[in-house]
Write a structure and sequence with these properties.
The chain contains 15 helices and 14 strands. It has helices spanning 19-32, 46-57, 74-81, 94-97, 99-108, 119-136, 149-166, 186-201, 203-210, 248-261, 284-302, 305-314, 324-329, 358-376, 388-404; strands spanning 9-14, 39-43, 65-68, 84-89, 111-113, 139-141, 172-181, 233-235, 240-243, 271-278, 331-339, 348-354, 384-386, 406-412.
Length: 416
């Protein structure tokens, strides 16, 4: 196994010919072409990789190298991984295409980050490869996009701030999706449908998907959180109606795993939930009810073959996405509230703003910064399967506002 310091590729963008992969490559070319990092494009189609490299090079002629490796060819994949310090992959659904790459990185000591939201697959990868990742020193970090960086880093930031200001940790954090503009990721949509399909076919997978602590280490105690709420509810702290948030079944598991991996830094009885805030005044209940009904219908459709085919036909397609102008007009706004254990006047509030659409523009920047962080910043953990907060928390809280257009703003939120 090559030592990471002797490898000739710092960052490999695997899946660089896909829609999100090209956005990552564009970002790297713009921000890190002359940063002392050697980064390259990887995928299975040489002709398409060459086209992306030519486009990036433009008139300068300074395009990245390309490397051809199919995810179905473990030997070639391992040869490429062995030359690489960090693999960034956008090739999903990861349960269908991603397992050989994780296995190679864990075995060969190569750091890794992805955009998966497939809880059952993450649990499977952890169970199969945690020991080899620890032995090799590979840091494997899933969910490095809109799911689940705002959730994971937002909670991490709030817990730290309450500890500094008040000498305690919050008993609960609420995440509320306030507003967003931009296309829903076709890759994420396909991953969610794939997850539902697998859960419908295998009761054991259904149990994993439904488990609020599915990603926690099995030998660790569980907390007080239950399944995600699916019905409309009035949220007094946000003065509005809330409904289910589509990413909550992923994000909440990641946040709870972060807590466990950091020796229950948030507390053993820490509670966390996510919802969509509906800001439509007296019509808020009807909007929340419609959202609840729609989410339930989509979930039901995803469980059965004929309706699942209809859902895939109607949903966004993998490999496609919004135009550059639409990405630039896109944004997201999230608000989190940390509840003080004894004095609600000491509650804290955090707003997270992204200046690109969440599914593509902001996500591609977030995962790029994760890869650069793993390649460049001082390590804060050893080998194993980590979350963004537990592996890179402070580094990302510096990098994302400075480089990626994702800000984290604190404000007091106590009750009067």
């Amino acid at each position: 196994m090559a030592h990471p310091s002797t490898r000739d590729i710092d960052i490999l963008i695997y899946g660089a010919t896909g829609f999100t992969g090209q956005l990552v490559a564009d970002y790297m070319q713009q921000h890190y072409r002359r940063a002392g990092l050697t980064w390259a494009l990887g995928g299975r189609d040489q002709r398409k990789l060459e086209a992306v490299a030519r486009r990036l090079a433009g008139d300068s002629g300074e395009g990245p190298d390309i490397f051809v490796a199919d995810s179905g060819d473990p030997q070639r994949l391992s040869e490429l991984v062995a030359r690489t310090r960090v693999v960034l992959t956008t090739v999903g659904p990861y349960a269908r295409y991603g397992s050989p790459l994780v296995a190679a990185c864990a075995a060969l000591g190569t750091d890794y980050c992805d955009l998966t939201g497939e809880v059952q697959w993450m649990q499977q990868m952890i169970a199969q490869h945690q020991a080899s990742a620890i032995a090799s020193g590979a840091r494997i970090v899933h969910t490095c996009g809109f799911d689940s960086i705002p959730s994971d880093l937002g909670v991490y930031r709030l817990v730290d701030e309450m500890s500094v200001r008040h000498g305690c940790t919050p008993v609960r954090v609420k995440y509320r999706m306030r507003d967003a503009s931009g296309g829903f990721s076709g890759g994420t949509f396909d991953s969610l449908v794939t997850m539902a399909e697998q859960a419908a076919a295998d009761p054991s997978i259904r149990a994993i998907v439904d488990d609020p602590y599915a990603l926690n280490p099995p030998d660790q105690p569980r907390g007080p959180d239950g399944p995600e709420a699916t019905m409309p509810a009035w949220d007094e702290d946000f003065d509005g109606w809330v409904g289910p948030f589509v990413m909550a079944p992923i994000n909440t598991r990641v946040v709870r795993r972060s807590n466990a991996l950091m020796n229950f830094r948030y507390g053993p009885d820490f509670r966390y939930d996510e919802a969509m805030l509906l800001p439509w005044g007296s019509w808020g209940w009807f909007a929340a009810a419609a959202l609840s009904f729609g989410m339930g219908a989509i979930h039901a459709m995803a469980r059965f073959g004929p309706t699942r085919s209809v859902l895939r036909a109607l949903g966004p397609k993998p490999g496609t996405g919004p135009s550059e102008a639409q990405q630039r007009r896109g944004f997201f706004d999230v608000e989190l509230l940390a509840e003080h254990p004894t004095d609600r006047t000491k509650d804290l509030r955090l707003t997270i703003h992204g200046d690109r659409d969440p599914g593509y523009g902001s996500t591609s920047r977030m995962i790029a910064e994760c890869a650069v962080c793993l390649a460049s910043d001082a390590p804060t953990c050893g080998g194993g399967f980590w979350t963004p907060a537990s592996a890179m928390g402070d580094h990302l809280l510096e990098r994302l506002p400075r480089n990626a257009g994702v800000s984290f703003e604190l404000a007091p939120a106590g009750r009067t």
